[in-house]
């Protein structure tokens, strides 16, 4: 192949993977694999500068605005960053910077963690209230760097994005009323793990990493979904009319902090490249402690005047560089595959690996996700595999390695036809990738149900973790979280103390004292915790039952709507049409969730469990709340002209209180706010029995 053929081929490949990454939010390559292709292209282009074209992926930011969003130009291009992969490259960059500036000038650098999310541009300006405060007017994604997608309504749901900044704060921060903030939106690892749990429970493929999940979230067309995901925003650039507002990056960060933005606390201004090298060395071990992903350190020239003189290359500033941490990956041997059964019965293949040290942690397990993933990788037992680990995300197998030192394995991985624990036949629901054990009494499922029930954020039963649950189920405490033999079956060592969640509430002190490593103190503390959990209330019980698609927020909305388990069960056990109507009257509950609830309560065993729990004295009521102090979960439609508020400011008030404004009236609309000359929307509201408010009513609701 000639160089120009190879260059063209690399460009095609890169474009394809950029599309998957930036537009679909579903990459097929790891970043390291992508970077390797890009670096190969850059090296070839350096050798053949005559072949460089403006549309080469090396020359332009890879995104592309997605359909469905309004596209808006940026005040100044949102660029990518050049990378350094080692100290030598970093020092070479420092040299280039200093060479380009007069030798009499000192250069200060600001080091910031390279947050692994996606960048947003937030524009602030005067609001319709004619006051002096600054209001969030628009939020744009990077898009292709010149044109972004308008995701304002989604951005409004991010709690760390101030919707308005008071005049006094602006003054303290030295900010004008209109300005622009750029920063990174990230999905914290805990929120990512939860999202993937929900996706898996819903039979969807898990998101590849928090960055892609964040990108997918900020570009969904439903703000209430975004609101549930707990995205975070860290500010790092401050602009006005397309220029940096302050003379230094370090003062810009200070000013952002003062005005109420979240600024990453690790940012630091440094006097020399040696100090930068030290900063990077200190930053890398932080990775496991932050709770969000970082993939390196961004180093920026502090002085705006120097930045201006350094300027830009095609797609990146010369005054900044991203030092990329090495991918946390390693090669090891796949020794076997375990099949684990989850709470919903989903069977997950787990790779048993020859232990390997990756980024300071010994890794001996990696997820293989599902049968399709095994097929995609084409992996066999005995193969050497590339394993990657990020944050506290479960390690995953990236690819099979094959060369002289790493010969292929021979043993085919056979996905079981029967549950490895209870032997009942596995089933695959049409359109889903996962195989499931549908036996409701499967011991593996009961174990997961108990763990879910006791988990933090559910019933919060401290002391009821892996090892204790295993013991209560008659398995050895030693095996803790890995209660499986090589065949995947739990090791039963004694008669189980419990078989259902209800049995937890029947446990006696003597029972517990008979277990391994359980003294009086432990036993009493656990019993106290179990007793206390009875008071958790309806929402927690609903969440604890593990109904498909019913996460924390949906459980809360259901509890508030129905007020008691009896009411909810009554609604769910009517004939199909009435049941789904009654359930879908709850905000954010659609046909899929409604059906899952109906199905759950149609199972005798589940009804028995609820009855049992009620008999045991668990609190199963909630305060019915149709009006809340915040408007979270409520949908509004605005129509007609209000006496004082403009349409826009009414919308802003509702949204900043957590409510949602929609354009059309349906039976799910919570309130229609009507002013002078309201037309068909008001009629529709009246015919559907939707509550109609006037401006005063709205203001009262807003408190
Ligand atoms: N896996 C794939 O198929 C695939 C495809 C395309 C791109 N990628 C990955 O995407 C990246 C390249 O894309 P890129 O152009 O977004 O570059 P980049 O992510 O390497 O660097 C630029 C970005 O860094 C971010 N950033 C984080 N913290 C920052 C801070 N403190 N200050 C300034 N910026 C900060 C901003 O979002 C900015 O846009 C590479 O890591 C590449 O591996 C992967
Ligand atoms: Zn089973």
Automatic annotation (TrEMBL):
Which terms does the UniProt entry file under GO BP?
DNA repair; DNA replication
Sum up the protein's function in the record's words. Answer: DNA ligase that catalyzes the formation of phosphodiester linkages between 5'-phosphoryl and 3'-hydroxyl groups in double-stranded DNA using NAD as a coenzyme and as the energy source for the reaction. It is essential for DNA replication and repair of damaged DNA.
Q: Which Gene3D superfamilies match?
A: 5' to 3' exonuclease, C-terminal subdomain (1.10.150.20), 6.20.10.30, BRCT domain (3.40.50.10190), DNA ligase/mRNA capping enzyme (3.30.470.30), Helix hairpin bin (1.10.287.610), Nucleic acid-binding proteins (2.40.50.140)
Q: What are the BRCT domain coordinates in residue numbering?
A: 626-703
State the organism's lineage: Bacteria, Pseudomonadati, Acidobacteriota, Terriglobia, Terriglobales
Extract one GO cellular component term from the record: cytosol
Which Pfam families does the protein's record reference? Answer: BRCT, DNA_ligase_aden, DNA_ligase_ZBD, HHH_2, Nlig-Ia, OB_DNA_ligase
Q: Positions of the region Disordered?
A: 51-75
UniProtKB keywords? DNA damage, DNA repair, DNA replication, Ligase, Magnesium, Manganese, Metal-binding, NAD, Zinc
Family the entry assigns:
Belongs to the NAD-dependent DNA ligase family. LigA subfamily.
Q: Where does Zn(2+) bind?
A: 419, 422, 437, 442
Q: Which PANTHER family match?
A: CHROMOSOME TRANSMISSION FIDELITY FACTOR 18, DNA LIGASE
Q: Which organism is it from?
A: Tunturiibacter empetritectus
Reactions performed catalytically: NAD(+) + (deoxyribonucleotide)n-3'-hydroxyl + 5'-phospho-(deoxyribonucleotide)m = (deoxyribonucleotide)n+m + AMP + beta-nicotinamide D-nucleotide
Q: What is its EC number?
A: 6.5.1.2
> Where on the tree of life does the source sit, at the highest rank?
Bacteria
Q: Metal-binding: present as a keyword of the record?
A: yes
Q: Which residues catalyse the reaction?
A: 114 (n6-amp-lysine intermediate)
**Could you say which residues bind NAD(+) here?**
31-35, 80-81, 112, 142, 184, 300, 324
A molecular function (GO) held by this record is:
DNA binding
* InterPro entries in the cross-refs: BRCT_dom, BRCT_dom_sf, DisA/LigA_HHH, DNA_ligase, DNA_ligase_CS, DNAligase_adenylation, DNAligase_N, Hlx-hairpin-Hlx_DNA-bd_motif
Cofactor(s) needed by this chain: Mg(2+); Mn(2+)
Q: Which gene encodes it?
A: ligA
Question: What is the protein's given name?
Answer: DNA ligase
